[in-house]
Amino acid sequence: MGSGRLYAAVAAGGFRRYATYRAATVAGVFTNTVFGVILVYTYLALWDEKPHLGGYDQAQAVTYVWLGQCLYATLAIQGGGAEKDLMERIRTGEIAVDLYRPADLQLWWLAGDVGRALFQMLGRGVVPFVFGAVFFPMALPTEAGRWAAFVVTLLLATLVSFAIRYLAALSVFWLMDGMGVNQVLMVTGIFFSGMVLPLNAFPGVFGEIVRVLPWAAQIQMPADVLMGETDPLGAFVFQAAWAVVLLGAGRLMQSAATRRVVVQGG
Amino acid sequence: MWVRSSMTYRASFVVTVFGNLTVTGLDFVGILLMFSQVDSLGGWSLPEVAFLYGLSVTSFGIADLALGSMDVLGARMRDGSFDTLLVRPAPVLAQVGADRFALRRLGRITQGAVVLGWALASVDVDWSAAKVLLVPVMVVSGAAIFSAVFVAGAAFQIYAQDAAEVQNAFTYGGTTLLQYPPSVFGKELVRGVTFMLPLAFVNWVPAAHVLGRPYPIGLPGWAAFASPLVAVACCVLAGLAWRTGLRSYRSTGS
Questions:
Q1: How many Cα atoms occupy the beta-carbon half-sphere of A11 within 13 Å?
Q2: d(CA A28, CA A35)
Q3: Coil, strand, or helix at residue A261?
Q4: What is the mean pLDDT of chain A?
């Protein structure tokens, strides 16, 4: 059980680290709220034009917007979570120290990222969501079961989100610099997670493809479970499958990198 | 120096430029996706929305190229390296602008200009000399207004120290807002963006004139030509705020 306590401590460290920057958190809440308001208005105009787009009514579209703002920092949709530090450590060569630690590299960074996500959720996500619920009509469930299922999808979404970013970070072992990868993370994250438009509303074959990609596990699935648009069990299976595949790929890539790594000196 | 440093990792630079083009292009892809489902948004057609989008993004891109590094300011104040800029014999604002100057930001301007070009070719407008002249005036005044927002945000950071994101709400939030027709938003919001933070003069007001639409809160017709004046006023105010902020700056001492 000793190692369990270690990762709990790393997670707590991740939480505390982000909790330190209070002004930044308040600023983030403000930004997410402003963007939420802009998006809500555009969505309302869109749903005015075409009611039931993507199977949502207006209240559901509004709920989707505020959920997106709530999860934006939590799931590091555009990057900027643990993977950013990991890339920096690989670039500078400090990763060598991490590899000597008597802890699993992937679990170590996962624990830190979970702590970060939890803080971002509580510190930064909840307020815009509540603001949205107070000032705009939302479609929130009343039964506890659905909220419980929603919490499970959030946990699984956190895993998938980390798994994607961990893979991206490890690529720096070969690329040497993370700037380009960060951009790719940002593009794919914002677009395929459905920050631009709910994935349900993507048209045609393109929409069908987008809805089976791992990014769909991040906002679309939790939203659909919360609003009762999909069967929770199906959502869990979808998310868990992607988590297993991506975390497994991360593990393979990690052993490939550490086996023949050339640590950058400095 | 910052240009050369970004060229060191060539593969990464190429990916970055490409990525930057795509990141900024994504908003427009989002708009295209919306229009794949509907014929108009808030009563505006796709070419009309593209016109707003192109103007907003091009203006913002120019301001961002010159002053987009303002959000590094908070970090520089926290770690104390801002003091270095103060003792150098060059204007602080120019130094902050050049800090982490990134050529990849050209991606945004390019992308905005392409959309604007397409919009100009596709909107159904009865062009007059005044309307033609108004387009470049909008881009330049818009860039000046956004620059003023960047500088005012930087001045605010001197007080707030750790709140770069508040600035993002106004800069990135502002440009996102202006990409959609004013008819989409609530009256209060439109009024706020016209009179409090006059972002509406970047494109909404003059573009309404070009496209022959009445401005939603009933501004007089000449308001369409007021953008340059608004831009000058914004720059003066932002400059004053910056100087006041600079004078009250206290180093963290680290």
A1: 14
A2: 11
A3: coil
A4: 92
Widest distance between CA atoms in chain B: 61
Q: How far apart are CA A142 and CA A31, in angstroms?
A: 29
| Residue A119, token pair as written in the block | 């803080």
pLDDT tens digit string along B105-146? 788 888 999 999 999 999 999 899 999 999 999 999 999 999
Q: Is B41 helix (H, G, I), strand (E, B) or coil?
A: strand
Residues of A in contact with B199 (CB under 8 A): none
Please state, in angstroms and as integers, the Cα–Cα distance from residue B150 to each residue in A79, B55, B235, following that order.
Answer: 24, 18, 10
* pTM, to two decimals: 0.89
Q: Tokens 């003059």 belong to which residue? A: B206
Crossing angle of helices A22-49 and A2-19, in 10° steps, is: 80
Contacts by A138-143, CB closer than 8 A, 24 or more apart: A138/A59, A138/A62, A138/A63, A138/A66, A139/A57, A139/A59, A139/A60, A139/A62, A139/A63, A139/A227, A140/A63, A140/A226, A141/A226, A141/A227, A141/A228
Contact A192, A44 (CB under 8 A): no
For A10-47, write each residue's pLDDT tens digit.
999 999 988 888 888 898 999 999 999 999 999 999 99
Inter-chain CB proximity A183 and B20 less than 8 Å: yes
Closest CB to B36 among A30, A178, A203 = A203
Give pLDDT, residue A36.
Answer: 96
pLDDT at A199 over 60: yes
- Cβ pair B34:A46 closer than 8 A: yes
Chain B residue with minimum CA distance to A33: B169
This complex has an ipTM of 0.85
Closest CA to A244 of A254, A255, A232, A236: A236
Question: Mean pLDDT, consecutive 10-residue segments, chain B of 254 residues?
Answer: 67 68 80 93 94 96 84 72 77 75 77 94 92 94 94 83 78 92 92 92 94 86 92 94 85 62
Interface test with B, best of A22, A77, A136, A179 (most B CBs within 10 A): A179
C-alpha torsion B211→B213→B215→B221, nearest 10: 80
pLDDT of A111 = 95
**pLDDT higher than threshold 80 for residue A143:** yes
Contact B19 A34 (CB under 8 A): no
Percent of chain A past pLDDT 70, that is, above it, reads 97
Cα B26 from Cα B36, distance rounded (Å): 15
- Rounded CA-CA distance A178/A157 in Å is 24
Alpha carbon distance B137, A122 (integer Å): 45
Q: Which residue has the tokens 């494109």?
A: B203
Contact B181, B43 (CB under 8 A): yes
Q: Which residues contact B3 (CB under 8 A, 6 or more apart)?
A: B101, B103
